[in-house]
């Protein structure tokens, strides 16, 4: 039961209601007089009537602030002020608006607008945070040149663009590039710089800095190199040059998301920029490199060309994720990156697409835009870009991108603008492709085959299940990359692109002497669920012979999955075919160790739950856990010797390097250690823990010890060693939850929330603890309901402080309809309890409402 009357009204905004802004902004002058509880913001803004607008009514957005004074053309005015903004009578022509407002950064726990983190002032304005700083038309299609003056005597005072005058207690900044308000940023406090410099392709010198709190200087070198690599890569691959004299990155401890692409002043969650071998894992290094690239690439795809409205979010995010994935593929291993991305896509986006929160890559309505920074917009959005590139080919892709940058530089654009560029370059009609942006849901692609008279035929059918608000979906164009293997394992037909554009379609291959083995959806050429009746023998064959690294990995994954499903559904024993095949792959020294480590990873509990649900079963989280444990034990027995050899063989003796080669070796050695631990009870893990020379080794060993039930000493030692390093202690919090037995996970998490180092005000710490619980299905869904209750308690506690992080974490409950009625009613009771809070943020109310509605 919910109490809508007590909530702020939940009003949806619709894409179809878009109208251009009544007033455009010529320029913006801001003065900040910084004070923790009483910051004054003075604005002087030149407004000009928009010739494309139907009305000249004047309204500004503004929240959580006190208006001290307002004037138009130097004459005081008294606007009508509400909780969300103001309206005012204005002249019929260009005028100068001046206002002074007061805001309180130190009490801003939502981490949106101007707030304080560890004594330092910082901002987060995307999507609609600028309206918490001053009254403004806070929408991305209003772009303006900003000049900023910061007063407050902080040692370092930064804003966007290039530095201007600075002196006794003040600093001025000017950003010559017109930008929407969501890209505004300000940082002030006691910070130190790790400097660098970059010479652009036209020979301009750009000063670079990574700003951190004193003490973190030693964790900046990797990020700086990643920034330089990103700048060079965007020049060589896309011809994009940086456009200011200065590029600053700031690390902030309290941050809702990963990082933010503010013009010339990127702000990062410290976990996404600070790195050292002692404190960061190889996976952390890879992620940091990718996020630095991502934010940097936004300078062109997001900032120079921005979004007309927030429905177009995927215009910048899908494209920028695609670009950062290309970058990582170039810097490291392309196949390994692709496999990692597909694992993440299935874990987060397919899950979203199959539940009550399913929405199109370009949604057509929303209540709270912060709830739409989703796996669908980002990761599926990037998949759409990848398909488009596949469909038009590399040449047309690069012509189209050049045209896009040239035609739309300085504009706020739509998906229609983006697709038009491709239509103009290729002459191709992309109307059907556009459905990928408009229809939610993951298409099911089923395939059968036949071989007759030398002709091999693949028969495809596509079908997309209904999603909230979208009952039936027309067929989409699906690029299907296919290769064929002969019975001896040789490739008889190299990768070809099949373009499916009907509900059912067949493709023929001629000139074959025998029935080939198909390798379908190579490189995961489309974000679909491929359904094919096949068998262990064929999967093992493809695992051994496929030339496409993605499908080779996929075959091993399918083998493991089929065996696990048989164990869960029919009580089958662990699949001998899988055990034999995976042992062979693990020992195949011709294969990249990173690939082999990925081949050894097993399908996730959540993936198995969805598979069981799709097969018409009710998944039992405990049974899934038990099957995985049984399989891991059987695998440890089958490959104990091989694992010991691999663990030795892939020890890295050279000085630590976070690059692909060493990190691949460590990944394989650590996968082997987990296998060994199931046989030796933790002896090898303890030895590795005691001698670990880097965090990758130390953390892997700690995980193994926890898994073996031998973690107590190491857990204490780890805390004592790292208690002053927040980012490492986050790992300490999450690992203990993640490695708890299902009946202990909620208890462990509850106990950790009582630890003196736990604070819900820091999103990283909150996620490390409660997010780890939500990410451990058997523990979270334990039949007692303790996991549900604990998470709900903490979401209820956090919502008044930080709606954005609370709302995101509600997605822990999004799969509830999969489970048995006892679990469903336990979850529903918690969702109702959250929904019934007397004051609930719009963010959380929308999420809980959508989840319950299913
Ligand atoms: N635009 C950012 C990115 O993708 C993400 C972002 C959106 C964000 N809203 C945010 C980051 C709020 C921090 C806080 O790079
Ligand atoms: Zn982004």
Task: Kindly list the characteristics that best describe this protein.
five-stranded mixed sheet, Immunoglobulin-like, disordered N terminus, 854 residues, 42% helix, binds tryptophan, Neutral Protease, domain 2, eight-stranded mixed sheet, single chain, globular, binds zinc ion, alpha+beta
Concise account of the structure shown:
The chain is an alpha+beta fold and 854 residues long. The chain has 27 helices and 31 strands. Among the domains are: 13-273, Immunoglobulin-like (Sandwich), CATH 2.60.40; 308-438, Neutral Protease Domain 2 (Neutral Protease, domain 2, Orthogonal Bundle); 448-526, Immunoglobulin-like, CATH 2.60.40; 742-854.
Q: How far do the termini sit from each other?
A: 15 Å
**Strand adjacency order, main sheet:** 6-5-9-3-2-12-15-14
What coarse outline follows from CA principal-axis ratios?
A: globular
Gyration radius over CA? 27 Å
CATH domain fold name of the domain at 13-273: Immunoglobulin-like
Uncertain parts: 1-7
CATH class of the domain at 13-273: Mainly Beta
Helix proportion range: 40-55%
Compute the number of strand runs. Answer: 31
Strand content: 15-25%
Structural category is: alpha+beta
List bound small molecules: tryptophan, zinc ion
